[in-house]
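To illustrate the input format used throughout this study, we show a single complete record. The first block contains the structure-token representation of the backbone; no residue identities are included at this stage. The design step must infer an amino acid for every position from geometry alone.
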């Protein structure tokens, strides 16, 4: 597993908006997850997820809007991206304890181990980040806290934009 910081997000390092923001982990997660630049992700978070400037995105807005995006999709860079809300069995581990079946939230480490392919926006208590092909993309200083419990996860699929060529006789 490689830990990447969100400074590798498109347009982050030269965005005046990014330099003036705080509590923007979900904006960075949108940028990395949908492969869009920071300013576009900021606009998406503000308009769709009701995120006020310099304040975090409320978890209930994330849950509600990701469910809507699962139904509607989202146009990104000229292609239709899809979102799949991961259900309980994707974000929980099942144990048998003294004959009783118990479901417990996966840790970040366990989630990454079980999701080595694909792109996921993951939420934990008061924080969001991306897991992309088993690599963690997170804010500097937050990179890997393996025992945090996963509250929600959303698989993001942004198809490659294809260019149609035509031949003329």
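Output of the design step:
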């Amino acid at each position: 597993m490689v830990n990447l910081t969100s400074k590798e997000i498109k347009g982050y390092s030269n965005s005046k908006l990014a330099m003036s923001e705080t509590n923007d982990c979900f904006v960075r997660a949108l940028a990395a997850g949908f492969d869009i630049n920071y300013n576009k992700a900021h606009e998406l978070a503000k308009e769709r997820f009701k995120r006020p400037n310099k304040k975090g995105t409320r978890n209930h807005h994330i849950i509600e809007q990701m469910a809507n995006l699962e139904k509607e999709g989202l146009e990104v860079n000229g292609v239709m991206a899809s979102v799949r809300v991961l259900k309980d069995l994707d974000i929980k581990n099942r144990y048998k304890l003294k004959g009783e079946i118990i479901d417990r939230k996966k840790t970040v480490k366990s989630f990454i181990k079980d999701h080595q392919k694909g792109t996921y926006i993951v939420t934990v208590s008061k924080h969001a980040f991306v897991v992309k092909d088993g690599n963690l993309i997170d804010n500097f200083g937050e990179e890997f806290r393996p025992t945090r419990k996963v509250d929600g996860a959303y698989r993001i699929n942004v198809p490659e934009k294809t260019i149609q060529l035509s031949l003329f006789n």
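Structural context for interpreting the output: The beta strands are 3-5, 74-76, 79-85, 92-97, 100-105, 119-124, 127-132, 135-138, 152-157. DSSP finds six helices and nine strands in the chain.
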